[in-house]
Automatic annotation (TrEMBL):
UniProt-recorded name of the protein: Alpha/beta hydrolase
Hydrolase is among the record's keywords: yes
Organism: Janthinobacterium aestuarii
Signal sequence range: 1-29
AB hydrolase-1 domain boundaries: 37-257
Domain of life: Bacteria
Keyword match Protein biosynthesis: no
Transmembrane segments: none
Xref: InterPro entries: AB_hydrolase_1, AB_hydrolase_fold, Sec-Metab_Biosynth_Hydrolase
Lineage of source species: Bacteria, Pseudomonadati, Pseudomonadota, Betaproteobacteria, Burkholderiales
Length: 267
């Protein structure tokens, strides 16, 4: 897992800040005001990875935004997501997958309207920690051996992809092979610099958090995810047997249920 450290659909597009927005249904919107759900994808994925979850949330009356995560650096990605969050009137539940957990941990500090954090197979770093360091903290991760040859960038960093032939087994083993092949083609790269960037003071120390992950995650070992959930004093942790790293795609109902529990805590 440590070998990578040195050299790891939703509806309409709205401007440059939003990947997508799914509005609440009119019938649901007529009831009590609900917090907006902002979904942040992780590395080797895009906002479409939330499609199943977003559909359930929207059906249940939530306004859902799939925020663009550029996967360039923790700071710049968090700044981008924070601008989205700050543009939302009212309360927000901020949800992150994988590296998106590092992003939401930083982004939620900017404004005052984030009332709950949900980590979906996601990093929850403390100050000074890196995604690369946390993923190698416990055995079981195999991402380093699944990466393709790095793509050099002008600033000296590298873009990282998962080899398409290894994507299904590594990233999405509990999804149909045909679906995983399409995800492999559309995967978005992350810079090695982002994975090795030290995180700022985390929002989970002051904002309630919820965690969900799969026992069969090969990107972030389940033991590492359990450690982060416990350290964050998670209000609730859901562990799904056999679920891969893309637990939100393979188990959207369970993930949406936990997000709605977090949203239900917002007063």
């Amino acid at each position: 897992m440590t070998s990578f450290i040195k050299p790891l659909s939703i509806a309409a597009v709205v401007g440059t800040l939003f990947a997508s927005v799914v509005p609440a249904s009119p019938a649901s919107a007529a009831g009590a005001v609900k917090p907006t759900i902002v979904l942040v994808h992780g590395a080797f994925a895009d906002a479409s990875s939330w499609d199943g979850v977003a559909a359930i949330l929207a059906k249940d009356g939530y306004t859902v935004i799939g925020a663009a995560n550029h996967l360039r650096s923790v700071k710049s990605d968090a700044d981008s997501v924070a601008r989205v969050v700050n543009s939302v009137p009212g309360s927000v539940v901020l949800v992150g997958h994988s590296y998106g957990g590092s992003v939401i941990s930083a982004a939620a500090q900017a404004g005052g309207n984030v009332k709950a954090l949900v980590y979906v197979a996601a990093f929850a770093p403390d100050a000074g920690e890196t995604a690369a360091g946390l993923s190698g903290k416990y055995p079981g991760g195999t991402l380093g051996t699944a990466l393709a040859k790095p793509v050099p960038l002008a600033d000296g960093s590298n873009d990282l992809f998962i080899e398409q032939a290894k994507f299904h087994d590594q990233f999405a083993a509990d999804l149909p092979a045909a679906k995983a092949r399409l995800m492999a083609v559309g995967q978005r790269p992350i810079t090695d610099a982002a994975l090795n960037e030290a995180s700022p003071a985390p929002a989970w120390k002051g904002i309630p958090s919820w965690f969900v992950y799969g026992k069969a995650d090969k990107n972030i070992p389940a033991e590492a995810l359990a450690f982060m959930a416990k350290r964050a004093n998670a209000k609730k942790t859901v562990v799904i047997d056999g679920a891969s790293h893309v637990v939100m795609s393979s188990h959207p109902a369970e993930v949406a249920k936990l997000i709605e529990e977090a949203a239900g805590s917002v007063k």
